[in-house]
Each structure stands twice: as structure tokens, then as C-alpha cells.
Amino acid sequence: MVYDYIIIGTGVAGLNAARLIPRDKKVLILCKKSPWDCNTFWAQGGVATAVDKDDIEPHIKDTLVAGVNQNSVEAVRVLSENSRSCINDLISAGLEFDLNDKGQLAFTKEAAHSRSRILHADGDATGRMVHLFLLSQCNHEIRTNVVVNDFLIDDDICYGVQFFTSETQEEIAYAHTTIIASGGVGSIYKYHTNSTAIAGEIQGLCVEKGLKLKDMEMMQFHPTVVKGTHFARKPLLSEALRGEGAYIVDENDYRFLFDYHEDGELAPRDVVSRSIFDYHKKTGLGIYLSFDKFEKNFFIKRFPNIYANLKDLGFELPFEKVPISPAFHYAMGGIQTDIKAKVIGMKNLYAIGEAACNGIHGANRLASNSLLEGIVFSKIAVEETLKNDFKIDEKNYKKEIKKYTRNKEIDKKIKDSLRKLMWENAAIVRDRKALRLTLEKIDKFLEEDVGRLLHLRLLTAKSILKAAVEREVSIGAHFIKE
Question: Can the peptide bond before residue 235 be classed as cis, meaning omega within 30 degrees of 0?
Fold first, then answer.
């Protein structure tokens, strides 16, 4: 059988696309682990939106400034001009955002925004509430614990995908339209805030198939992650905390960030992360996030999940400072698409959300534009596919169907080395010589007889390293130490 749609991923972009596809369409949604093993579910921050028509131009300006004007102005305009209508559509469908005392939408402020325009749900659990709402709206088939390992591509047409259903079993599914919403690359870095399911295999698959990736050197590192935990996914302390009064100090209570940028804690993420990295390296002092400007009852009401999570770790907020350090957070780069979310050079393959790159984020993503991107461009993608109504004939796919080995014994050692190498040499501050040496090591890993999933991760890592070497000038999240 041939599906009308295959959607890869169950985050905000994939599930919102599924919500908007007519119920009479046959849709298969592929999920690598469980539906909530995605970055959307863990998103503490909110959803940015232009508050009204007058706020469109300021929102565009803030996005461009944060992105060091490396953004596609056209893509940013599409994002902002469609933001409020897409948010209103979700509200009309039943999603509840937090309200103020007057019963109106409660807009808050975050770093690098010139005004309050961030919406939240359940305080600091916006991603989780959006995700649960979209799951409740999903009327299509979801298959869990399946991992895509190949695209069936011939003559610029994607006929479908091949995927692992277990350690040894594979299946094929055909579709008239395939939508990639698989997320970023977090797990190829040693320290990250992502779901452990997010490991960049799809980007590597695109490299293998000759599909274009864009801005892969632009990897964002969140400045405030709880330090000293042993979780694979590091606990995040939301940007909203600093937007509403939390501030960063060293162990002597000195607010050193103002030595680096006039906006201190509210400077763009790349600046804050790099400043923490540099200050700690120069002084050896511990870095902390302080919450002493908050009143306890307000803090518990506004940030209930952060309060509970940190209490479990032994911290009593807002009275105690929490040790922090930066960690990988978000991929600005990804699969290159046009403004309608279609993958460049393809007739019926689309990419949305963090997996995609149409230039919205430039060299540094503005806080809370990520959930918005998934919401806006999933809608645009579905509208475009319905208008095009592209049809495949699966009998026209004549290429050999390959069989793959998912994992091999050698993989774990190489995977651990990869994550360490990427953190040390392709993270917050980069050295061109070290980047080249790391590239050589990745090439040697690719010569090994590794499993399919690790092979794809290595291709993704190589694309990040190559882009970083080729970008000769430091800009935004890409900082080269000369």
C-alpha cells in the first residue's frame, strides 16, 4: 500500500503537520522511541509570537539581530507574519496558554527580545503542554520504536522510507509525500539538553543521498544548564528565568557578564555561553545562577517544574544558587529547504522544525522562536503538499533495497569518542587546527565496519566540522580561536 503521507518525528512540527492533514488521508507517523522522547516535550521556554501587527517589524528585527543578520529575511518575515494567526489557530483548537490577572494572554520577556512576546503553558512546561495537546489531536497512525535508515529516492522523487523495527528487522513504507520532522543532532555532543533520541541520523542520510545541508556550523549552546549531574540529557534552566530576574554570578557573587556585553544576562545566547566559557577558563571560578530577586510563592507558581526538578536534585529555590555551565542545545543548521518547506532539489520531500534550515535563525536562534518555527512551517508545508497533490507510482522505484545492520560491537567505543571529540573541538570555542584533526579522525571512523546508525551520525558530524572549517570568520554561534 502507498500512504498519502509519511511523517518522520513526533515533536511539535511533525504532530502539528499531522493535525492539519485531512482525516481522510492515509498518514504514517514514524517515531524513533516513544512520542514524548523529543525536544518539544522538554522545552521549558515558551512560544514567541508577534503580539499584533505592530509587533511584526520589531519581532523581525530582534530575530535578525540575534542571528547576526545571517538570516534569510524572507524566511523571518514569513515566520513573524504568520505567527499570531498560527497561535490563534491552536487556541481555537483547544490549546490553553497561561493568562494574566485580566484573563488575557500573558506575554513574558526573554533574552534578546525588545518586548514581552513569549507565551507559556503551565508556567515552565510549555513544550510538554503543546506536545500533549498535539498528541491528543492526532487521528493518524503512529508507529513507535522505529528508526529510519534510508530514503527511497530516484530522479528527485522520494518514494518512501526504509526503517528498523527492531535490532534485526527492517520494513519499507511508500508515500506520495514524505515530511521530515526528526529534530536536530544533540546526542552527537557529550553535553546536551536534548532528548537522547535526537542524534542526527537523518541529516547524515541526507549527506549520503546528496541532499543539501545548510549552516551546519551554526550549533547553539545554551548558557544555563545544571552542572554536575550524571544524566545523558542535562537539566536546562530556561531562558525565561533570566528574562524575569535570575542572574549569573561567579562564586564571589560578581556579575561578570557585564564585562562582556552591556545587556549582561539578557545578551544573545551565543554571547552568554561564550562569556561563561571564557570567564571560567581565565579565572577557574565556579559559575552560578542566582534567583534571589524572586519571591518564593511567585517562583513556585511561575516555574513549578523547575522548582520541583531542582528540589529533587537537592536545591531549595529561590534561596540557593545553582552551579551552571553551557551545553549543546539547538541546531540552527539542517536540511536546506525553500520557503515552502520543500527540500531543495526534491519534488515531494519536505523538512520542518529543527531538522530543516531555510535560514530563519541565521547564526544564532532567538529564544522561543523554535516552537514557533515548527508551528508555522508545518502549516505551510501541509498547505503546499495539498496544493501540489503529488503522486508516486511505487512500481517506478527500481533501485535495489539494501539491508543494513543497525548496531555493531565496535559502535559504543566510537560513539563515545565522537561525542567527546565534538564537545571538545566543535562546540562553544573552536580551533581551526583542532577541527581539521577531528575531521581526519571522523574519516578514519568512517572506514571502520560500524553499524548503520553510527555511520549516519558520523556523516552528520563530518558535515558540522567541514562547515566550521570552511567558515573562516567568527560570527554568532561559530567562534574560531585564532
Answer: no
Residue 233: is its pLDDT beyond 80? no
Higher per-residue confidence, 159 vs 268: 159
Pairwise CA distance, residues 343 & 352, whole Å: 9
Q: Is the pLDDT of residue 232 over 70?
A: no
269 is catalytic: yes
The strand pairing partners of 349, in sequence order, are: 178
Question: β-pairing, 322-331 with 334-336?
Answer: unpaired
Annotated catalytic residue within 19, 84, 128, 269: 269
Q: What is the pLDDT of residues 324-338, one digit of tens each?
A: 999 999 999 999 999
Map residue 281 onto helix, strand or coil.
helix
Check the CA dihedral 431-196-153-10 and report its sign. Answer: negative
Whether residue 468 contacts residue 217, with contact meaning beta carbons closer than 8 Å, is answered with: yes
The whole-number average pLDDT for the span 340-363 is 98
How far apart CA 36 and CA 131 sit, in angstroms, is 8
Give the pTM: 0.94
Could you give the CA distance from residue 133 to residue 94 in angstroms, rounded to a whole number? 8
Query: Which three cell numbers, joined as nine digits, stand for 153?
Result: 529516492
- Determine contact, residues 130/371, Cβ cutoff 8 Å: yes
DSSP, res 315: -
d(CA 90, CA 133): 9
